[in-house]
Amino acid sequence: MTEEPPPVPHYLNFVGGRWVDGERRQNTNPARPGEVVGEYALADRAVVQEAIDAAGHAQSGWASAPVGQRMEILDRIGTTILGRVEELAVLLSREEGKLLGEARAEVTRAGQTFRYYAHQLLQPQGELYSSTRERAYAEVRRRPLGVVGVITPWNYPWAIPAWKVAPALAYGNAVVLKPAELVTASAGELARIIAGSGLPPGVFNLVFGSGRVVGEELLTSGGIDGISFTGGTATGRHVAQQCIAYGNKRFQLEMGGKNPLVVLDDADLEVAVRCALDGGFFSTGQRCTASSRLIVQTGIHDRFVDALAEATRALRVGDPLDERSQLGPVASADQLAQNIEYVEIGHREGATAVAGGRHTADEGQFMRPTLFVGASNDMRLAREEIFGPVSCVIRVGDFDEAVAVANDTTFGLSSGIITTSLSAAERFKRLSRSGIVTVNLPTAGTELHLPFGGTGASNHGPREQGAYARDFYSVPVTCYTGW
Ligand code: NAP
What we know:
Strand content: 15-25%
Shape: globular
Number of strands: 21
Strand order of the largest sheet: 15-16-17-14-13-18-19
Mean pLDDT: 97
Bound molecules: NADP nicotinamide-adenine-dinucleotide phosphate
Low-confidence stretches: none
CATH architecture of the largest domain: 3-Layer(aba) Sandwich
């Protein structure tokens, strides 16, 4: 454990290759009240506009830079991140409250993501077609989208900016990144690494500030060609409306989830409990892919509930820098208040808490995980995203009912099934309406080379990650050539 906090670093906006100061704010450690993690400078609207202009000036030069140069820079960013995993993970843990082990994995993944997109540049970038006309052929090429505004949430301060910024840069775009205000130190470190990578000035810009001021400026500016957004569904809807209203910008939205995990009678109980525990509570439930609805068949229901309740009560909630902790604090006081309110809603709606279920002021931002049983799918507990360590069990009679309940949601990010039946697993993959389906694995946990995204209220626009990321960050151009 780190007893003495390190000196407070200062993070400035990065605009056109220059560090730009502004009114200073502090962000603090959710695990240790009063411990300042970093100080950051707010951008005002003029600074944001300067960043957008700088990106606009730099973009075409970057798009025409040799692929070898683009690869080298992306690879250097990734390698630098990978060389500093431990130090950056401690910062992430202190800033967001993520367990140190999870923070190491996240920073590592960010580094690997930059390296992955460096190498994606060697993949085919277009297609060749015959033409139905004589002495002619057609090709589909890719042109960069242009200047991309990237707006990110607080729960993955390295992974999400990386999986947006890396493909955006790889495919020849310029970027203005606005991270969530809660996690400015991680974004500040990313900007420092990018600043030292040899990327031409203006190609990457970072602006700090609230969604209301800085985010809004990106949404309404005529200098932005597209917005890649990850965050809550209500914010996402607003992003969509503004993008359409202000210049018909292209937009990509990854939003919330209310993800089901189905447990069938034939499930391996140990696997079911492990996946429910991980999917429901790890990362303090602050994952868009968290399994917050456990849909359990009647024959295994009581055994599953007993085992999961015991395992939930045994989870060690504590300082994320202490390697013995299994759950860190809730990331912010606002998020904690929301979690507590939903626990109260669960009690009022008639569900029964078999683990957790109460929070006392002396626990600070450390919240014990809550498991409700006796829930039904029409309760708010089962319909609305909580984004905390709160999960509920819904009892069902058979596979068909389980699938119907799993699909009965406005969201559609991830879903999972625990079963030893190959047939049930296969049918679930076909019938589930979510964008990610897991079998005998937690609903959370994705891989960087595979497409990521949902359906319904969880997503709008092309998939992120893997080779699919190209679909947002580039525009297909159909060329006909006669000869
Ligand atoms: P949020 O409140 O929607 O904020 C997301 C980002 O949008 C933040 O940077 C926020 O800035 C900004 N923002 C807020 N209002 C804005 C506005 N009017 N214009 C432009 N930008 C605005 O979400 P969050 O609380 O940070 O993150 C939690 C949510 O993200 C959950 O719903 C979770 O499911 C979702 N999430 C989804 C995925 C996915 O891939 N599907 C992954 C992770 C998280 P400030 O907060 O700094 O004001």
